[in-house]
Every structure is written in structure tokens, then in C-alpha cells.
Specification:
By secondary structure, the protein is mainly α. The protein is elongated. Helix 5 packs across helix 7. Helix content is 71%, strand content 0%. The structure holds protoporphyrin IX containing FE. Protoporphyrin IX containing FE binds next to helix 6, helix 7, helix 8 and helix 9. Keywords: Heme, Iron, Metal-binding, Transport.
Length: 185
């Protein structure tokens, strides 16, 4: 009888130890610890989890992410707003943005912010269409020169907002990585 009770205690003690090790190694956060407030939607709860994960990742690596080096969400939004002004005023590609409705313009702005924020390692999720889908057939197929004009609009906006050379190169590398999906002729 005593042996059975000892065995049961050892079993439970072992289980507790294994759980503690798993929580430490895999950083398994109990669901109640993810957000202390009751979130009305699953979407919000997912976002809190992602932000928590993002914060702990950058703390662990000790390296500032591109998102942080750019100055965070509002700084990225300012770069996108200046990019929009630059491309609207560009003689080669301005015409593509002229006829957009107010809401289409706001939608495009938000998608661009989300896209750049996510690419920079920030707590954002891009939910727009793929670059191929949203640009395919535009003006009979976008050219390399038109793409260059857009990229130049981004570069000028980064300069205007005082983004340092290393961060600027990284943002422009991201832009360049999309060329093959956007350019068709
Ligand atoms: C790296 C370069 C580019 C990036 C990152 C980019 C990004 C985007 C994004 C995120 C959207 C929204 C997607 C969606 O509606 O689901 C979009 C739409 C659009 N883009 Fe681009 N784009 C680029 C180049 C260009 C170029 C070169 C042009 C024109 C010359 C252009 C014109 C447009 C227009 C007019 C829309 C609105 C399409 C619509 O509402 O149906 N984009 N772009």
C-alpha cells in the first residue's frame, strides 16, 4: 500500500517537473496569461499573442528589428504617406492613382502600411491580395521603368523621414524582392 502511494506521488511530481521544463523550453504560455483582459473577438486575442511573441523574440535576440529601427508603426505610416504623395505626383505613374475612390485610397494606404510593417518584423499582418494578383494587367502590364518610379518614390520618402542608410537599404531590398511579381513587360 505504501509503495503504491509513493509511486503515485512520484508520478505526479514527475508530471509537474516535465510540465515546468516544457513551459521553460518551449515558452508554452498558458492561455490565461496571453491577455489579462477579456478580448471580444478571436482576432484580438490572436493579435495579442503575436505582439507578445514579437516582443519576447526581439528581447531575446538583443538585436533591434528593422521595424524598431524605422521608428515603429507611426514612422512607417509617415513613410507610406510620403510615398503616396511621391507616386501620385510622378509623371510616369501618377495616372494609376488618380481615379481611386477615397475608400480605395484609404484601403491601399492601410495595405501598404501593413505590408511594410510586417516585412520589417513588426506586429502587423498583411491581409491584401498578392502582388501578382493586384497588379496583373494594370495599364496593359506594368514595366520595369514604372516599377523603378514607384521604388524611387519609396526611397525619397525614406530620405525625407531621416531613415538611416542600413534601414533604407533593407526596405529597398524588400521593395526590389517584389519586382518579379509586379512587372509584366
Ligand atoms: C514594390 C512596389 C509596389 C508595392 C509594394 C505595391 C503594393 C501594393 C499593395 C499592397 C496594393 C494593395 C493590394 C490589394 O488591393 O489587395 C497595391 C495596389 C495597387 N498598386 Fe501597387 N505596389 C507596388 C508597385 C506598384 C506600381 C509600380 C504601380 C503602378 C505603376 C502600382 C499601382 C497600384 C494600384 C493602382 C493599386 C490599386 C489596385 C486596386 O485597388 O485594385 N503599384 N499595391
Amino acid at each position: 500500500m505504501k509503495i503504491k502511494s509513493l509511486f503515485t506521488k512520484a508520478f505526479w511530481l514527475g508530471l509537474v517537473c516535465i510540465s515546468l521544463v516544457a513551459v521553460t523550453i518551449f515558452r508554452l504560455t498558458p492561455s490565461f496569461a496571453v491577455s489579462t483582459t477579456t478580448t471580444p473577438t478571436a482576432q484580438l486575442s490572436t493579435t495579442s499573442t503575436i505582439i507578445a511573441q514579437y516582443n519576447s523574440d526581439s528581447e531575446r535576440s538583443g538585436e533591434r528589428t528593422l521595424y524598431q529601427r524605422l521608428g515603429g508603426y507611426n514612422a512607417i505610416a509617415a513613410v507610406i504617406d510620403d510615398t503616396a504623395q511621391n507616386v501620385i505626383n510622378d509623371p510616369l505613374i501618377g495616372r494609376y492613382f488618380v481615379g481611386l475612390s477615397t475608400n480605395s485610397g484609404q484601403r491601399l494606404r492601410q495595405f501598404l502600411i501593413d505590408q511594410f510593417c510586417q516585412a520589417a518584423g513588426g506586429p502587423c499582418i498583411y491581409t491584401g491580395r498578392t502582388m501578382k494578383l493586384s497588379h496583373s494587367g494594370m495599364g496593359g502590364g506594368l514595366t520595369n521603368s514604372e516599377f523603378d518610379a514607384f521604388a524611387n518614390g519609396v526611397a525619397l520618402a525614406l530620405d525625407k523621414n531621416g531613415v538611416k542608410q542600413r534601414a533604407k537599404n533593407e526596405v529597398l531590398a524588400f521593395v526590389e524582392s517584389l519586382r518579379s511579381q509586379i512587372v509584366e513587360r
